[in-house]
Amino acid sequence: MSMLPAREIPGDYGRPFFGPIKDRFDYYYNQGELEFFESRMQKHKSTIFRCNMPPGPFVAQNSRVICLLDSVSFQTLFDNSKIEKKNILDGTFMPSTDFTGGYRACAFLDPSESNHAILKGYFLSLLAKKHDKFIPIFRQGISGLFSGLEDEISAKGSANFNDLSDAMSFDFVFHLLCDRKASETKVGSNGPKVFDKWIFCQLAPLVSLGLKFVPNCLEDLVLHSMSLPFFLVKSDYKKLYDAFYKNAGPILDEIENLGLKRDEACHNLVFLAGFNAYGGMKRLFPYLIKWVGTAGEDLHRRLADEIRAVVKEEGGGVTLAALNKMSLVKSVVYEALRIEPPVPYQYGKAKEDFVIQNHESSFLIKKGEMLFGYQPIATKDSKVFENPNKFIADRFLGEGEKLIKYVYWSNGREIDEPTAENKQCPGKDLVVLLSRLMLVEFFLKYDTFKVEIEKALLGSTVAFKSLTNAVHEDK
What we know:
The protein is α+β, with helices and mostly antiparallel strands. It has 15 helices and 10 strands.
């Protein structure tokens, strides 16, 4: 790597206590998330700069970070030789371990910790063993989602995709891990709501409700100045924990045989199912449908043509071989993951002094400094992608396939693979598969659809306004 001109990292943290509070109000209320970063990039003429990240006082002891907002420097966050990932999943603070039975879940462990290799290695092997169940379980669930959309549109003229998608996602995860439907257990249909409350209580210091009738100072005091206690969801969480403990026996047996306590194994499994899997799908699927829906009928026609032709060529079945032949479907999924990554933040703490680069300069990082990457800006780097703020369905076709290495949604490059020794999402390939499968199922059944989009607490709310059935269905 050739050394670029050295530069001091611009920006500052302001006065103690008041600096973090000012940045917090800019982030949530005065500017908003995107303008917060873009204004500082313009001010400092740099994609690397210093600032405070929420929540700050009194939740986080130290809110100081170095922002990495370009495709080059962002990749430093994946380098385990330079970056420590201990207790930084949610950034500059960590929710109470009460939410996970008193244990630090795998996502909070650094790869250097022994339990990380045990847990992640097992999760990877578990997904490999269950690979033949992905498609049939998901197809079963999505047929119910379609029925729900059609019924709501018929009755109300509009259908809330998010609620139906959340229910499908929870059912898929529970069925995959427990080998039975959630509806056959005491959890029933309440799983998504329980997981939503459990996730919200952990992430409350990082969100804004956007309620116009609540003064900013009051919301800031309630959400960002204190952590919500576990007792608010204790009884609900126990129901979920008990359901997994009772129905995921074979998985817990195997993890226990690897040297972990059974309750620790179960709390980790609940975290994997709820925070990682369900929580990720809760953002991912609405994003995917949002971008495809708003792209319009021309893209819908092209997707339908490709999907139906390949499925017919493969004998009418939706198989992994068929999915792998759908190049436009692949490109659309990668583009959705690029333009609006389901996990927008990455953090890491420097293990040692080292030099980092963006496209123009070199910067010295000191041991112990916290690095922060905001993926929705890093994956819109104009020096890598043309028209980076535009959804371009064909972006990763042909020669564009080389750009897939700059898609970072999974805490790693898309061309990399998760291992027990890194922090890349263990379900990376499954997420891409399910996203492609969702598009395939949609365009086998429908020719086109129309949606309306609104901003939501965690992502976007997608409302279906119409669904046009396929003229010819080749399944």
